[in-house]
């Protein structure tokens, strides 16, 4: 037992040293980021990342370690490094530079994300939310009490609430740039048109990531220009110092794509965990016997069950293009079931091949 305690003490010492080295690595990473920024170079360098990962595998092999473990550790370090460099770059870019920004719905999850993001950029952020404010920020419990003279107004509310907010803004005609972050744009169209016709500088965006996101590399933000390009330019500039991919879409094109990117993927996952729930099987027993595919789907399903069911229903029911995607899902499930129940091996293989060909068109550099 004494030998065990001695070994544990030695291991704890190594753990501390390991974290100290990681901290030192992060300091060097931050300095590299500042050098790259001053030289006008991008934050991410895929060639350098490959060198680092190759070195990790080579070193792990020499030390008779699992090469995959060595690479996994360094992928995590690279991700942390990129997040550090990106955050430093956002701060140094200083888009806000003392300007005022109002986040309507700033107590919500994505509202809080934008509060942090805009504060980092140098904006003096104010919050309007009937629920609560945040310490250190000027707070309005309702839109009627807000002066609306900020240079930037972000609407981060549920879809139905966003419509009402946009309608109120159209009446009051604020001079600053206005944009919503709604997952669907069709239900907002009339209210957005009202803002445009009122002479407001309005645009619309959709961040394709959740409120826990720290690193924007590999993430997308969709920009829907409503015919007021100066507003879209301002919205895009907020993300210019990040590694986010900026995607431009029309309003209808956005919702048509979301019927599959959000609606279909949500529906598949909800159907998956409800099929399990109604199967009579025990979740813990299935988990013990699971395969890698089941584990991956189970993890996704677990995350979806933690999401806001009311928001998910809005995404399904408010999108005019949802029926097409849902019917496609029903047809696909029917086809799979038909091939299996009929013993149609050839037809089943054809379905697999059809999917393989479609997925071959996916870019190979997606994270």
Keywords:
6-phosphogluconate dehydrogenase C-terminal fold, 8-stranded mixed β-sheet, alpha/beta
Largest sheet: 8 strands, mixed
User: What structural category arises from helix and sheet content?
Assistant: alpha/beta
CATH architecture label of the largest domain: 3-Layer(aba) Sandwich
- According to CATH, the fold-level topology of the largest domain is Rossmann fold
Assign an overall shape. globular
Total domain units: 3
Determine and state the CATH class of the largest domain. Answer: Alpha Beta
Per DSSP, what share of the residues sits in E-state strands of 2 or more residues? 5-15%
Helix content: 55-70%
Low-confidence stretches: none
Average residue pLDDT: 90
- SSE sequence, one letter per element: HHHEHEEEHEHEEHEHHHHHH
Number of helices: 13
Termini gap: 46 Å
Q: Determine Rg (CA atoms, Å).
A: 25 Å
Number of strands: 8
Name of the CATH superfamily of the largest domain = NAD(P)-binding Rossmann-like Domain
Strand order, largest beta sheet: 3-2-1-4-5-6-7-8
Structure explained in plain terms:
The chain has helices spanning 2-38, 46-62, 67-93, 109-120, 159-172, 189-197, 229-237, 251-277, 283-288, 292-305, 309-317, 322-341, 345-359, and strands at 100-104, 124-128, 138-140, 152-155, 177-180, 201-207, 220-224, 245-248. The model has no long low-confidence stretch (mean pLDDT 90). Strands 3-2-1-4-5-6-7-8 form an 8-stranded mixed beta sheet, sandwiched between helices. The longest helix has 37 residues, at 2-38. Helix 6 (189-197) links the parallel strand 5 (177-180) and strand 6. The chain has 3 domains: 2-92, Chorismate Mutase Domain, subunit A; 94-249, Rossmann fold, CATH 3.40.50.720; 253-359, 6-phosphogluconate dehydrogenase C-terminal like domain (6-phosphogluconate dehydrogenase C-terminal fold, Orthogonal Bundle). 26% of the residues are buried. It is 59% helix and 10% strand. With 367 residues, the protein is of the alpha/beta class. The chain is globular, with a radius of gyration of 25 Å.
């Amino acid at each position: 037992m004494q030998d065990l305690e001695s070994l544990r003490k030695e291991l704890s010492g190594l753990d501390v040293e390991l974290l100290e080295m990681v901290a030192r690595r992060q300091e060097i990473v931050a300095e590299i980021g500042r050098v790259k920024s001053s030289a006008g170079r991008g934050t991410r360098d895929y060639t350098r990342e490959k060198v680092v990962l190759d070195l990790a595998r080579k070193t792990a092999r020499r030390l008779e370690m699992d090469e995959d473990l060595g690479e996994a550790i360094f992928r995590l370090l690279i991700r942390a490094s990129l997040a550090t460099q990106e955050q430093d770059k956002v701060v140094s870019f200083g888009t806000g530079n003392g300007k005022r920004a109002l986040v309507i719905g700033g107590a919500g999850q994505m509202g809080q994300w934008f509060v942090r993001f805009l504060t980092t950029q140098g904006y003096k952020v104010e919050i309007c939310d009937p629920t609560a404010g945040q310490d250190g920020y000027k707070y309005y419990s309702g839109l009627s009490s807000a002066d609306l003279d900020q240079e930037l107004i972000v609407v981060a509310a549920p879809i139905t609430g966003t419509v009402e907010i946009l309608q109120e803004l159209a009446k009051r005609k604020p001079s600053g740039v206005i944009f919503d972050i709604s997952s669907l744009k069709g239900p907002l169209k009339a209210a957005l048109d009202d803002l445009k016709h009122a002479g407001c500088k309005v645009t619309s965006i959709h961040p394709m990531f959740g409120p826990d996101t720290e690193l924007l590399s590999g993430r997308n933000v969709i920009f829907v220009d409503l015919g007021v390009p100066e507003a879209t330019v301002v919205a895009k500039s907020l993300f210019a110092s990040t590694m986010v991919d900026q995607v431009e879409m029309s309003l209808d094109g956005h919702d048509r794509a979301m019927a599959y990117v959000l609606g279909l993927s949500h529906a598949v996952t909800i159907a998956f965990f409800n099929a399990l729930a109604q199967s009579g099987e025990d979740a813990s027993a299935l988990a013990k016997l699971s395969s890698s595919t089941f584990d991956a789907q189970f993890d996704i399903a677990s995350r979806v069950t933690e999401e806001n069911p009311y928001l998910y229903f809005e995404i399904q029911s408010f999108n005019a293009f949802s029926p097409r995607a849902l019917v496609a899902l029903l047809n696909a499930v029917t086809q799979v079931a038909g091939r299996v129940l009929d013993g149609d091996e050839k037809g089943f293989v054809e379905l697999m091949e059809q999917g393989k060909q479609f997925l071959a068109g996916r870019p190979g550099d997606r994270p």
